[in-house]
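User: Hi! Is it possible to get a structure for several chains at once, not just one? Here's what I have:
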Amino acid sequence: MLPSELKPASFSSYPPLGREVAVRRINLLRQLPLSFVPLLLREVQIYDWNFPSERQEIDAQFTYLDGLTAQQLQEVMRGFTTLQLPVEMEQIDWVNSPLEFSERLSAQLWITGKIAAFRTAAIELLNRVHTSVPSRAPESSRCALVVLGQGVRENNYKLFRKLRPEGTYFTNVNPKDGLSILMEHVADCARKHPARFAHWYVDGGIPFQPVPPGVEVVAYSEIEPLRSRIVATMHGQLIQGQATEARRSGLAKLGPADFGLDTSGTNAILNRFKVSILAEGSGTQFFSTTFVQWSVRELLRRAQPLTVLARFAPRMTDLAMNEALSGSSEKPTLDADGALIDADMAAYYTWINLMRLSGASSASFLVWFEDHKEAVIVSPTTTRGGQSDQAVSISNLVDMLRIPSP
Amino acid sequence: MIASAFMDVSREISRALSFNRREFLRSATGACVASALTRSPLRAAQLPRQKKAVVVTFGGGARDNETFMTEGQENIPHLLSELLPQGTFFTQVVNRGILGHYVANASLATGVYETINNFLAAPPQNPTVFEYYRKDLNRPRTDVWIVAPSVGFERIGESLHPGYGPGLGGNVILPKRLLAAALPTGARGNYDSLLRDNYESPLYSSESATVETDLARIAGVLKLSVGDFLQNARNAQSPDELSVFVLHQLMKQFAPSLLWITLHDIDIAHAGAFSLYIDGIRRTDRLCSKIWNLIQTDPEYAGKTIMYVLPDFGRDSDMEASGNGFQHHRTGDVRSRTTWMLAIGAGVRQNVLVEHPIESTDLVPTLGSYLGFSPRFAQGKPIEFL
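Assistant: Yes, the chains can be modeled jointly so their relative placement is included. Here is the combined structure:
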């Protein structure tokens, strides 16, 4: 099937909002090349479960492309049109299985050495979209808070080595009530700028209580039943002899309904996000540090929140992971020191991902070694590469994070 | 302000990628740049006749950030202080092929960018270095061994290419598969850490329909009882340690002229735990030193062997938005395609850096020049400075 053959009925299996988008834009979809349409439909197919900001991104692509003349559209799509695909690709049910198509496309691009050309075409297109339909500035300055090192008494690892050059390193922080003060800051942000999916708390262990209203929570300990079931699914795939790619595709198709989770309203969006972190992430099923890092990375990319508090906890050891894979029900051995190093790198990635969002120039970032004296703040008001040895409280640090709205 | 600082970081990393290995190594080892030197005819004339080659690949890419850049040097003390001063170091090895570990190692072994499915045990499409060597020099199968991680690699020993292929390849030995076969029922849990196979998928599958045959055959050729093998496995801290143990056994039993070992511990990075990835790099660094010491202390190898050490490719850059930094190698960006190679041993100039870029596919033609076979289907060319 080719895009020119699309009919409204082609989208009958799509959820309501996605179907409405596809049918409304069908004339445009018919004009786009096969190497591009399924990738767009992959997003449309899950439109109903996307975060508001993701929907805006998809809408922006359609708005931009629909605003082009036929000649302009041809020019913009040239990078995709020139990627000649084998005829078999047309036989794939890419309307209903766009994920399968994109995996086959990816393999084809690697084999033919065209992956770089494809990436260039995709980046150019997105740049054009962003220029034509700029992302909305955030309602208030974004803020990311990272708390790491839970359970570590003594540390010889040089923390924040990648972040210190970007901001100010504090060496004499009074840790008293640190976590509750940070949580109160998140609560304050949620009160001032209430919006669904705008404020998040991700914890790699048992979450701090109480979680303030208006804050979404994703915690490793609370997600345990879902995690166990997804690991069991992975075992099942292996026993069936499914190849790696088939296993990956199978996991990516899982949704909240497969695990008896609520699929109504906005709960569906949150539950689908949780499933995707465990089913599509690599290592998230076993290492709590990976779980937190990947969750924050994905929610920054997808939900584009105003506030995130990420707290890392000790993760299971490598050996414990093997035992878990073997189906052992023993309580896993934890590695707090290893988790500290994992989280240190994850904090750096969180800052990088924060900087990729709109309003980056007014965003602020704090990382704190829990119950210890070290912290780094990167914000428009702190000195790059600076160091402060003065005694400060967590409240003092939070005050430094308060940046006027952009 | 922050956004501009972010851009500064991006530019800084790009600059670092282009030159930092050379600058750092020069300061760390006092190495010379090869373009300023000429090949010594005396050294070449001293080459022994019974040449041997040991190729060590890392089938889990390692980035410059965690190895040869300033921030990573603490992770590779053996490479830096012991091996580099004795060898020639190539600062830019570019892999233009598919960035999957099996297919990339197959490409290294054929000198052609292979396009086989990375996750299937498919033979390379082009003749391998093992076939070229055996056919052109009329060498027996026992003279060529490959020690490899399991997934896919069992077919790396010989291609299906007309004129080469079945009967002309090297022996492939998969230590994890052997271990799985050697374990009594129910004892597997004690060895789980050595059995995990493919780090891109957290579940392992070291079983094979032919394991029992493999075990019997290999136990015979290694002159090693199952009990001794299990005892050594119990002492191994990782799959790569087990692989190096098997390599040593092969050296003692056969003294093969062409040995190829792929280390894989680093690929734990796919699980996203940075500390375990660093542990893997440090262990690999130590094992490279160990292999070199095995070569140096074995009369069959000492003075007549070149060891080549190279990652199959790198990993994604921190700054590549579509990736997740060190965790994967899926973006195809510059950092994931660019790596390095160390050559050390008989006739190789010492303490020399070569900045001139080479490609992964140049390894086989280089081995051809050294060992004396014609890699007629390889795409690469012999490396000028070796």
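The domain at 53-316+329-371 of chain B is CATH 3.40.720.10 (Alkaline Phosphatase, subunit A). The first strand of chain B starts at residue 32 and ends at 33.

User: Great, thank you!
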